[in-house]
Design a protein that fits this description.
This protein has 145 residues and is mostly beta strands. The chain is built from no helices and 7 strands.
């Protein structure tokens, strides 16, 4: 399912959900591939690969459960209360509770609670509200100018 413009999704199950524009997800959205590009809000997104791109103002989700999750704030920010994934990439994102095997943190990211086996930091501008629970940490940036 590929849609454009303003759209309300209510308890959607499909092979793929691709939307460009403003959206509202009521209930559950389940798909192998979920691509949300624009701005909007939602209750619960479940998928194999989830790409959430805040191209407008703000994307606000209550829950995101995916195998691979990519949360990218382009012009706006991505705000999610709870994220559970095997691999997650965050850039210009605010997450309340993050559980992931591997978490990759980009710029301007704020996370309340992190539980991850491995974390990769691509930028020094990452903040944690609570002490993170991370087994292996890797830094891929330089602070020298």
């Amino acid at each position: 399912m590929i849609t454009f413009g303003t759209r309300v999704f209510e308890n959607v199950k499909n092979k793929e959900v691709v939307h460009f524009g403003k959206f509202k997800i009521r209930g559950l959205c389940v798909a192998d591939t979920v691509l949300l590009y624009g701005s909007g809000s939602g209750d619960w997104v479940v998928g194999d690969t989830c790409l959430i791109l805040a191209a407008g103002k703000l994307v606000r989700l209550s829950r995101l459960d995916c195998v691979k999750a990519f949360l990218l704030g382009l012009k706006g920010k991505v705000v999610v209360d709870a994220v559970s994934a095997e691999l997650v990439f965050l850039k210009k994102a605010v997450v309340g509770n993050l559980r992931a095997e591997t978490a990759i943190f980009g710029q301007e990211t704020l996370v309340g609670f992190v539980q991850s086996r491995q974390a990769v930091f691509l930028d020094p501008h990452v903040w944690f509200k609570n002490e993170p629970s991370i087994n292996v940490v890797e830094y891929r940036y330089s602070v020298t100018g």
